[in-house]
Design a protein that fits this description.
Elements lengths: L6 H11 L4 H8 L3 H9 L19 H9 L33 H11 L5 H8 L3 H9 L21 H14 L39 H13 L1
Helix pairs in contact: 1-2, 2-3, 5-7
InterPro entries: TrcR
Pfam families: TrcR (PF06242)
Protein name: Cytoplasmic protein
Length: 226
Amino acid sequence: MAQPLMPKATAVWLIDNTGLSFRQIAAFTELHELEIQAIADGDVGQGIVGLDPVANGQLSKEEIERCEKDPRELLKMAKSDLPRPRAQAKGARYTPVSKRQDRPNAIAWLLKHHPELSDAQVCKLIGTTKDTIGKIRDRTHWNSANLAPRNPVTMGLCTELDLEKQVVIARSKNPEKIAKDVEPDPLPEELQINPEPDYPGKKGEEKKEEPKTSDYMEAAENLFKS
C-alpha cells in the first residue's frame, strides 16, 4: 500500500478524530506502532497540525467506520485519479563550481585521516564519484603529483557535524581501518611563511668598524704639529 501524504500529520488527525487503534494507524501511515503511541502521548510530533485524509481523498468516512468496528481490519486507501508525486532519488551532493577544484584535495585528506569511511560516505559528504575516489587512492588521478590533503570542513565542502556523523558510523562498522599515527598535513601555500629575500650586497658584506675617539685625538695632534 502506498504511504499517505504527510504520514505524521495524517497520524495526528486519526489519533485525535477517530477510534482507530495504534496498530491500524501505524499500518496505514507506515509508521512504527511505538511512534504512533509516542505521538498520542505528546512525546513526538508536538506542533504538527493534523491532516484530514478524508478531505484530501485518501480515506472515506465509511472506511474509517468499518475499521473502528473491527480492530483486526486495516484501512485501505481510497482510489484517486490524481497522479501521485514521485520521490526524487538523491544524487551526489551539489558542490559550487568555485569549490569543485578543491574536491580532490578533500578526498585525499579523507582517505588519509579517515580510511574507515566507505566510498559511498565520501561521495555523500563532498559530492564526488567513486571513480574519482579510486583514482586518487591508486594515485592514477591526472593531478596526483600536485594534490595536497585539505580538510573539507575548512574548505566549506561539508559541515563538521556531517563529517563527525559519518565518521562515527564508519568506525562502528570498520574499527580495524581507523588511521593511527597519521603525519600532520603540510601547511597550504597561502599560509606558509617565506624566508626574507636577500637584497643586493647582503652576502659577504662585512660590518665596518667605526673609528674610536682616540683616533680623532691622534689626528688632531698631528694636524697642530704640522
